[in-house]
Specification:
elongated
Amino acid sequence: MMTTTQYQNNHISAKALAGLMLVQMALGLLLNFYFLKPILRYDGSTSVEEITFILGCATIVALIISAINIAFGLLLPQEKTKEYWRTFVFLIVFAGAGLTLCAYEYAQLAKYVSFLASQSTTEATSQLLRETLASGRNEAHYLSIFVSSCSLALFYFLLIRAELMHKWLSYFAFVATLLQLIAVGHTFFQTSIPNILQLPLLISQLTVPAYLLVLGFKQANPLTTEQPESDI
């Protein structure tokens, strides 16, 4: 049976998990609209030193975002991760792979910034940089997102199996991640991402942390659970 200490720890973990989900979303917006924008739309108006600094900040933020996916699994109740250990292991493996691919993506981006620093900022150079970013960095970027989305799908699959949230919210979040995988999968066939498929994920990434902040994990309260008989 669950002890009072376990119940309290799981409640704290649920709130920490919710907070990390919101932090991850905020950092994602900061990364895409503040740090990456001047790099991907470089027109020669920004100094190389400033671009290099922005790239460093972007790399740190991106790695934090990816590392949070690993924290999602580690914050789940230990009694549930032990019970469904196979799903948990796959979750951590995919989250770790996503972190590795994220590091590779920004290593590629660093090469492009290094290329920028070694060349004059002519129109031809700028065009070549854009083409390089489109062919190399974007492939690594979308592969990283795809693998990270797999870890998120496994996270919600584990929530469903362990019955840690209301089942309809868990199923909705799980389906939302599958739609995200389908959306990102379009890039592997050189087609644009249908943004409508990403809308459910946005909704779930707001509703799930709100649920966890208010209710925590769905589990038996030790104060109302019948205690096992003593062996003495």
